[in-house]
C-alpha cells in the first residue's frame, strides 16, 4: 500500500490563473483615475453610445468591455434601465449560502475587504455562480446607494439582467476585471466603479461565485482590483488547505482497509476523485468520477469497471478484473455538449455503460477543436487553435496527455483525434455568440464571429430592435420585443462518424 500525496494543490495552473494583456491605448481604470471622474465618464459614454449605435468604437475601448457590450446587445438588455429578475426568497438565499463552499472562507473575505469598503464608502458583495447576491457588507452610505440601484441580497447581477458589470462579466469570462463608470452598459450604473474576481473551488475547478468591491466612480483606485484578486486567491488557498486536511483524514481511515486487500487493485479517493491511498497499482492522477456516482458498480474512464464502496468523505474503489476488456468494453458514442455556457459536459457511452463528466475550460476547448476537426490535429495546430501561436506545443502536449489518461480509449494520437471507431456528437448553441463564453481561443472566437455576420431581423440593428417601431424607445418592461434573451437551451447537433 502506497501513500499518495497528490491533491488539488498539485494541479497545473488553471485557465483562470492566467492574465489577459491590456492594450496600452485602452482607457483602463488607471487612466480613468488620472483623467478625473467627469472626463473619464464623458469619454467612456462616447464609446458606449458608439457601441449601442453599432458604430466602430474608438481604439480606447477595452476589448473585454467591448465584447461584453456586444453580448448584452444581442441579449436585448435595455441600456437605460437594465432588467429585473426578481429577488430570491429568504429561504432559498439561506439554502444557497449553506450549500456554498464560500461560506467556509467568508470571515477571510470580510477581514480582507470590508474595512476597505467602509473607509471608501463602498460595499463588498459576494455572489454565487449564477450572479445572485448572497452576502453584502460595507459602509451604510454605500449600502443605501446599492439599495436604490437594486444591488441587494438575492438580486441577480448577471450580464443578461443588468448588462456589462464587474460581477456579471467576471462570471462570463472567468477572469478578474474592473468596470468603471460608463463602461457599465446600463446608464443608471454609470456613477459606479466595480472590481470583481471569480472564486473557484480548488478541488474541481468549478466556479463558485464572485467577490466584488463596488462604490462611487470617484472612489476608483487602480489598486482596488489587485486587492480584490489577492483576497480571492487567499480564499481559494484556504479552501485548498481544508481539502488537504480532508484527504489526510481519508488516508488515515483507508490505509488499514487497503492493507487487508492483498493482491487486489484498489484505491481510496475523496468525493472529487483525488486519491488518498492506493494498493496493487501505480498511483493515478485525479479520477474523473461520473456525475451520478455512489456505491455499486461503475465504469470509471481511466480504470474501467469498478466496485465502489463508501468511506467517510470518500470512496473505496476496487477494480473488477473479471469484467470484459475487449470490444464490449469500448465506448461507441461521445457527446460533447457546449450549449450551457460555462458548463461543458462530455458523455461517453457504449455496451458496458456510460458516464458524464463536466470539463475544465481548457479541456473543453481542446475537445471542441477535435470535435470540429475529426481528421485530427497536431500539437502545433491545436496550439494555433487555442493560443494563436503554433509554438506553444509543450502546453498542448501536457494537457492532451492528461486528457488521454483521463478519458481512456476515447482519444488517440499522431495526430490527436477522437478514436476512429467512435461516433462523435457536438451539441452547440443555436446562437454562436454563446459558444464557450469564457474562451479566448482563436478557433472559438472565429466560430462566435458568425453571430456578428448574421443580418439583424428585418434588416435592423439590435439597437433598433429594442423598439417595435425601430425607434430609440424601449418596451415598458425593458425587454426586447422578441421576449427578452434568446432561449439558451436551443442547440444545433453536429454528428460525425469516423473520418
From TrEMBL:
<dbReference type="InterPro" id="IPR003018">
    <property type="entry name" value="GAF"/>
</dbReference>
<dbReference type="InterPro" id="IPR029016">
    <property type="entry name" value="GAF-like_dom_sf"/>
</dbReference>
<dbReference type="InterPro" id="IPR001867">
    <property type="entry name" value="OmpR/PhoB-type_DNA-bd"/>
</dbReference>
<feature type="domain" description="OmpR/PhoB-type">
    <location>
        <begin position="354"/>
        <end position="418"/>
    </location>
</feature>
<feature type="region of interest" description="Disordered">
    <location>
        <begin position="438"/>
        <end position="499"/>
    </location>
</feature>
<feature type="compositionally biased region" description="Low complexity">
    <location>
        <begin position="476"/>
        <end position="491"/>
    </location>
</feature>
<keyword id="KW-0238">DNA-binding</keyword>
<protein>
    <submittedName>
        <fullName>GAF domain-containing protein</fullName>
    </submittedName>
</protein>
<dbReference type="Pfam" id="PF01590">
    <property type="entry name" value="GAF"/>
</dbReference>
Amino acid at each position: 500500500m502506497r501513500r499518495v500525496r497528490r491533491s488539488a494543490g498539485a494541479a497545473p495552473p488553471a485557465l483562470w490563473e492566467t492574465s489577459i494583456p491590456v492594450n496600452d491605448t485602452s482607457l483602463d481604470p488607471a487612466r480613468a483615475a488620472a483623467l478625473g471622474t467627469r472626463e473619464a465618464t464623458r469619454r467612456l459614454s462616447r464609446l458606449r453610445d458608439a457601441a449601442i449605435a453599432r458604430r466602430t468604437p474608438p481604439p480606447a475601448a477595452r476589448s473585454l468591455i467591448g465584447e461584453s457590450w456586444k453580448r448584452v446587445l444581442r441579449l436585448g438588455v435595455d441600456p437605460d434601465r437594465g432588467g429585473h429578475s426578481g429577488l430570491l426568497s429568504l429561504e432559498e438565499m439561506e439554502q444557497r449560502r449553506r450549500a456554498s463552499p464560500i461560506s467556509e472562507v467568508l470571515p477571510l473575505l470580510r477581514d480582507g475587504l470590508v474595512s476597505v469598503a467602509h473607509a471608501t464608502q463602498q460595499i463588498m458583495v459576494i455572489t454565487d455562480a449564477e450572479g445572485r447576491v448572497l452576502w453584502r457588507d460595507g459602509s451604510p452610505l454605500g449600502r443605501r446607494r446599492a439599495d436604490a440601484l437594486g444591488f441587494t441580497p438575492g438580486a441577480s447581477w448577471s450580464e443578461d439582467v443588468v448588462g456589462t458589470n464587474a460581477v456579471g462579466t467576471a462570471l462570463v469570462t472567468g477572469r478578474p476585471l474592473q468596470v468603471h463608470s460608463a463602461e457599465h452598459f446600463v446608464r443608471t450604473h454609470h456613477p459606479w466603479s466595480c472590481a470583481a474576481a471569480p472564486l473557484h473551488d480548488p478541488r474541481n475547478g468549478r466556479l463558485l461565485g464572485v467577490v466584488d468591491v463596488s462604490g462611487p466612480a470617484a472612489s476608483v483606485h487602480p489598486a482596488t482590483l489587485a486587492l480584490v484578486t489577492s483576497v480571492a486567491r487567499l480564499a481559494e488557498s484556504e479552501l485548498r488547505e481544508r481539502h488537504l486536511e480532508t484527504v489526510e483524514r481519508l488516508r488515515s481511515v483507508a490505509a488499514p482497509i487497503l492493507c487487508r486487500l492483498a493482491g487486489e487493485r484498489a484505491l481510496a479517493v475523496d468525493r472529487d476523485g483525488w486519491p488518498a491511498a492506493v494498493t496493487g497499482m501505480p498511483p493515478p492522477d485525479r479520477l474523473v468520477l461520473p456525475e451520478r456516482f455512489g456505491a455499486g458498480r461503475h465504469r470509471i474512464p481511466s480504470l474501467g469497471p469498478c466496485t465502489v464502496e463508501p468511506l467517510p468523505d470518500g470512496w473505496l474503489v476496487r477494480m473488477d478484473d473479471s469484467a470484459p476488456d475487449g470490444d464490449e468494453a469500448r465506448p461507441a458514442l461521445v457527446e460533447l455538449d457546449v450549449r450551457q455556457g460555462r458548463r461543458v459536459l462530455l458523455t461517453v457511452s457504449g455496451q458496458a455503460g456510460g458516464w458524464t463528466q463536466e470539463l475544465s475550460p481548457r479541456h473543453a476547448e481542446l475537445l471542441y477543436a477535435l470535435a470540429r476537426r475529426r481528421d485530427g490535429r497536431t500539437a502545433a495546430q491545436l496550439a494555433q487553435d487555442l493560443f494563436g501561436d503554433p509554438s506553444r506545443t509543450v502546453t498542448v502536449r501536457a494537457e492532451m496527455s492528461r486528457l488521454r489518461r483521463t478519458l481512456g480509449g476515447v482519444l488517440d494520437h499522431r495526430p490527436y483525434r477522437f478514436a476512429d471507431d467512435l461516433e462523435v456528437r457536438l451539441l452547440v448553441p443555436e446562437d454562436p455568440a454563446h459558444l464557450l463564453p469564457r474562451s479566448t481561443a482563436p478557433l472559438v472566437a472565429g466560430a462566435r464571429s458568425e453571430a456578428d455576420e448574421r443580418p439583424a431581423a428585418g434588416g435592423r440593428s439590435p439597437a433598433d430592435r429594442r423598439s417595435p417601431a425601430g425607434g430609440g424607445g424601449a418596451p415598458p418592461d425593458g425587454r426586447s420585443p422578441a421576449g427578452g434573451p434568446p432561449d439558451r437551451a436551443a442547440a444545433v447537433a453536429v454528428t460525425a462518424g469516423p473520418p
